[in-house]
Description:
The complex is a heterodimer. Chain A is an alpha+beta fold. By secondary structure, chain B is an alpha+beta fold. Chain B has two domains: 3-97, no CATH class; 116-342, BirA Bifunctional Protein, domain 2 (2-Layer Sandwich). Classes of the chains: A alpha+beta, B alpha+beta. At the A-B interface, helix 7, helix 10, helix 12, helix 13 and strand 26 of A face helix 5, strand 1, strand 3, strand 5 and strand 6 of B.
Amino acid sequence: MKYSLRWLDEFVSLDGFLQDPQKLSQVLTFAGFEVEGFEDQSARYQSTVIGIILKKEKHPNADRLTVCQVTTGHGVIHQIVCGAQNHQINDRVVVALPGAVLPNGTEIRKTQIRNVESEGMLCSASELGLSEKSNEGSEGIMILPPDAPVGEAFSTYWQLNDVIMDIKVTPNRPDCLSHRGLARELSILLRRPLKDQVPGDENITMSLLPETSFFKVQIKDKQLCPTYLGAEFDQVCVGPSPLWLQRRLNSLGLRSINNVVDVTNYILLERGQPLHAFDWDRIDGNEIHVRGSLEGETFKALDGVQHSLKEGYLCIADQKKILALAGIIGGFDSAVCLDTKRIFLEAAVFKPDFIRRSSRSLGISTDSSDRFSRGVEAQELWENFLRAIQLMVQVTQARLVGINRAYNLEERRDALVRISTKFVEQKLGYSVSEEDFLRVMKQIGCRHEGSDHEQLILAPPVWRRDLEMDVDLVEEYGRINGYDKIPETLPMLTVAPSQHDFYFGWQSRIRHYLTARGYHEVVTSFFVSSRLESQFFSQFDYRVLGLGWGHSVKPLNPLSEQMDSLRRSLCYSLFERASYNIRNGLEQGYIFEINPVAFHVNGAHENRKTGYQEEWRLALCAWGTDTHYWDIVTSCPLVLKLKQEVLCLPWFSLSDRSKDLSSIHVPPFAHPGRFGVFYYETRPVGFCGEIHPDWQQEFKKRIPIVFAELNLSWLLSCALNVEKSFQPFSRFPFLSRDLAVVVPKSVAFGEVFDTIQLFFHSLIQDLHVFDIYEGQEVKPGCIQYGFRMKLQKPSGSLVDDEVNRMMENLIQELREKFQAELPVR
Amino acid sequence: MSPVIQDLKKKLEEIKVQAREALESVEDVQALYDVKVGFLGKQGVLTQLMKEMGQLPVSDRPQWGLLVNEAKNFLEQVYQERFSELKSKELMQKLQREKIDMTLPGSVARVGKIHVLSQVTEELVAILSRIGYALRLGPIIESDFYNFEALNIPADHPARDMQDTFFLEGDYVLRTHTSPIQIHSLEKEKLPLRVVGTGAVFRCDHDISHLPHFHQLEGLCVDERISMADLKGTIRYLVENFFKKNLMIRFRPSFFPFTEPSAEVDCQCPLCDGRGCQVCKSSGWIEIGGCGLVNPKVFSKVGINFQKWQGFAFGFGIERMAMIRHRVDDIRLFPENDLRFVKQF
């Protein structure tokens, strides 16, 4: 909220702080009121001074312009071209000199107007931001009284030496959401008295209030509207507000509308009490109802917007129609206008959470609804009401003719708080004397009601509804004393052994491993565009790959279409980040991410009734070919490198083929010929593949982008092989053999490999392919593999002959199974 | 001395000169050996001279033998010297040939980097675990109860406006802070308790300094006697260990529904050591998070006796900590994941 220091100063002396707002800002900040900024208004009128017109001549080249010689004192004379008609020689005027910036943003410069030099501008009230621009033609420049001191800064003359401070008031302190409220707090913080009597306040006394009223107010639900006061005025002169009132509203960013509305806004800023003024003559009958809206009832708001209401909004109505949505917005039809002669002024208290809920569901937020949502203090309503009446009479010359008191000011339930200074000491960590504690409590307005054993009984002030418990008073004591008094200690704690979260530990372990393997970790946004994501996945169901899947989780209030749902896979995010980096010229990269994804599964069969599921995933992505490097000779495709990376993860024994070689489901975003599934035993747990060329059209050069995604939740809960027990190894000599075979390409490498592996069974210690060849030497349609194997018996030595025999049998088996042949020498 | 011996002596001197010259003139080990064989081999000159001994008078024989052997030994010695000389020369040449330009690069050792947000998280967790905190994670989709209600943020309370919330179907939200993790721990675990929660959080706010998806870390300590002073000391410990500097901290009163008293935490700007710089806007202080003593109402919500148990909680933004420590001036760099950014940390 914005506060005027001048206004605050009317309630509590800010002597010494007006000139040094930074100092005040420190005080407020360390009392829990964060100052978000302040503006010295006098800076608004730099280089704007009072001058006197010495000479006025017609502009040689323009009929409607005059050329004036203006002095701003000290013998300095400025020639200024002026378009207004209302000025005379010897008039005192407001001169904006070159360098001035007017409130509307106009920068004043030395310039030529139709070939005549002009060194500034004579200002009108609207140009100075003091009034709304009038619609009736030229308003003329501002002529000041003849006693205006020539040469004085306009800001000084107009008393605009105010500072506007923007202060964040936390939700627990609605009592400070007004100038008087904050002044009350400042009087405590600065230890200066609160000037409670506002000039003119004394005019209103209870005895002068009328006893009768025209309207009868009926409240349907006293829970929603505990208190309702009304004041009836006649002989109202609706018109512009006096300048001081306009200026004050303007300086806090409010537009002056008319004197009646301005008074209600003024009271809101001064007292924190929202008011509403109705045009008495536009209210049907003599009853005012505070009731719930009916289904389908219509209401035209002040701003002209027509609303068709649902049942149950709190409204103010006459016998025929809704006059206002209580605490939110007034009605168009009962609004005060220039013809208004009589008004009904409402001052009420509505239930904060109800107003907040209504305001949100209607999508209407006003100063009034914001204020009511944060809690208006019923205990102070009467006082504020009187102040409003007084100001209304003063400003509009109206006559108060009736008062409605449909209120049941509940007797203040004295919320007493019991507290011992020992407790305060223990919570703050420093010693506290009862005397000092009581001093501070009294300072903030608490009454000391007595003592009970070791405990003090305190009654917090009415405006501090937030002080309910002993800890609230601890905070108050600490706050007023300054948090700097709190020492620094380390707690005396009981030993309470515990473990880090399982997933966090693994996330960290995998992260360190993969970075050591050359992959960069990325942390990408959990939000995706559901449109792009469904384009990517088409109708594909991730579950066939062993990854969880369901509907997108979509916030009801997304920020934008690009971020309208939570991602269901990491690989899309990584693909997107890879593309981003490629666009930025990084033609090669290795990245990974470990994070949860979320989706929604319908039906009650899931363990969580809600259907929301989160699953930890690990995804890797690589793109580009290795930079040309002098020792790089391998031509292994990137997708295979990535596959191997995953298979080699040391904690899971994954396989790239299952025994059940039924057809693999390839998602639409993957290259159908470059895609594989990872299995743990026979269960699919993820995949790896290369992006479908269709998704790469944006790049002129085709850069392979490959990725893998694993169901980490499942792997960590079901496939961890951490319990390892020692396996004795053979200490007998081993024999090595190379075997080259030519097989038709239709045979998968894996089948040949597995056959060899299985053939030797426990004898084989190492089997790897050292050469893959297809070309002139090999029959068309075939491919030649060179295997190297290391054979060893668990006990005893292998004999050459024995191995040779086995090799022959192996070749025979490969021949029969795959039509394999030995290469032609 | 008999003339025969005289003669022999003369001859042997000649042979020695001859042999030395021959041995020293060859440049490789094989040739050297051949030379040696020429003198000392079966057909060698000295071997021949030895054989001649049989035909000599007996009286000359011992001396003859002595002299020839002496010459043999001499040659053997010269040969050995020359041999090791050549051998080491050969080795030098071989080593010379095998020389590698050590300024050539080796095989590419790709090294990946841990994302700076993970680094900061892991480090904060490590610092806290040294004083007994265990890490907890929680779901990102939370019910209204865990995200608000249990944290003393009732429905339609203005405190809800402090956090722009993403709402989901049903009574669910994307968690707006990591505080629900505290509630899960308080519900499930035994007291006393020290946990640190971390993870992604979501706010419906996106501009130059706010991300809709960012990360928080927060600590919760529950024991029988816990004070604001303990909280201050703990945060000081954390800040000093994280920034690896002796930095003061200060508390500013604030309001969080789940703590009472509540405070915002500032620490001395680690970039200028509190002297004032651009980052701390010349104030020397920088806001790093919020904290307070656990509100008894929170304990009540989860059925913990607040007469017996007390606690404190504190929370930081991971992005903010990373920005301060590494002088990152734009929060949007974190989710962007430009590798030119990721690689720097």
